[in-house]
Inverse folding.
């Protein structure tokens, strides 16, 4: 990845092609985002804005040629790139600060959703019913498999799922782009990630959201956003101990393979990381052995 980052950083035309060409492709959009983050960290916001402006022209051309909804594609790209530039610029000084900004942006997005949509559950319920109906018509699902209670339960989670999923995507782009920028300048990104800590402000908001849920109050998915954020801090804690105890370099491969083999284990693993991260935020689990 270091050689790819160096190759991309060396020439604007390469970055523009990566930013525009990979943005609309499922799975490869992360590479586009990481390129924007890397540019913002290495060359600053102005240079990143120039890259994205040129990429927007190229993207609109690609969208027109492929028969896409060009205005929608362009708006989506502009909003996404501005977020990634902001996170990249913040990450240039502090990875933790950029992570905190990503969490706050997700919370702002949730608030905007609640203000714009009168009844988010009803909104998502309509969307899910349409999706499931299409799946039934295609023969992928049987109509009996979809219960009204199950649909309502899923709809109640959708706001949190969508916003936390978007935040996770932005954070992954931030982490990948930061690692690329560090590789280009021979920095020590790994050490910076191992010290990642979201801080008392985010931790306090998460605690309030958790207490509200325990009291039976509806947080509309805010707790899910905090859980996703602290998951990354939990991973940082495990990485810190792996480095401290000198675990084999491929230790993380097992963490990736096991959940793929058993999907239930993935949920347990993510919840465990979130719990570790939240606990570390208040009590500090990264202490060197005496």
């Amino acid at each position: 990845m270091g050689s790819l980052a160096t190759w991309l950083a060396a020439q604007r035309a390469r970055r523009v092609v990566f930013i525009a060409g990979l943005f609309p492709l499922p799975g490869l959009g992360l590479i586009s985002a990481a390129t924007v983050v890397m540019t913002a960290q290495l060359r600053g916001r102005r240079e990143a804005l120039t890259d994205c402006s040129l990429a927007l022209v190229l993207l609109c051309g690609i969208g027109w040629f492929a028969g896409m909804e060009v205005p929608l594609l362009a708006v989506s790209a502009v909003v996404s790139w501005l977020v990634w530039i902001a996170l990249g610029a913040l990450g240039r000084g502090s990875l933790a600060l950029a992570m905190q900004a990503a969490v706050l942006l997700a919370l702002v997005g949730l608030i905007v959703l609640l203000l714009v949509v009168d009844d988010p559950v009803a909104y998502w319920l309509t969307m899910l019913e349409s999706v499931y109906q299409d799946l039934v018509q295609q023969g992928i699902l049987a109509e009996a498999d979809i219960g009204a209670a199950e649909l309502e339960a899923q709809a109640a989670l959708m706001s949190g799922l969508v916003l936390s999923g978007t935040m996770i995507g932005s954070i992954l782009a931030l982490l990948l782009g930061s690692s690329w920028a560090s590789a280009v300048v021979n920095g020590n990104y790994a050490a910076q990630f191992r010290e990642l800590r979201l801080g008392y402000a985010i931790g306090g908001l998460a605690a309030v959201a958790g207490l509200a849920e325990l009291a039976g109050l509806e947080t509309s998915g805010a707790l899910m956003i905090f859980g996703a954020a602290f998951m990354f801090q939990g991973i940082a804690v495990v990485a810190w101990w792996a480095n401290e105890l000198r675990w084999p370099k491929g230790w993380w491969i097992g963490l990736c393979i096991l959940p793929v083999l058993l999907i239930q284990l993935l949920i347990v693993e993510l919840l465990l990381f979130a719990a570790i991260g939240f606990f570390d935020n208040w009590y500090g689990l990264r202490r060197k052995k005496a």
